[in-house]
Amino acid sequence: MADLSWSVSAPWLARENPRLSSFFRTFGEARWRTPSYCPGWTAAHVVSHMTSGAGFYRAAIENGRKGLLAPPFGAKDVPDFRKIRGKQMEELLALPGEKRVDRFEEAVGALQRTLESLMPRELDLNGWHPRCPTPLRNYADQRLYELILHEWDVRNEPEEPLRTAALGAAVEILMERIPFLWENTEHPQAEGRFRFETRNPGAGWEMETRAGKAVLFKEGKGACDACLSATASDMVLLVCGRGPVPERIKGGRLGIQGDRAKADVLIESVFRPY
Question: By the 8 A CB rule, do 200 and 229 touch?
Answer without folding.
Answer: no
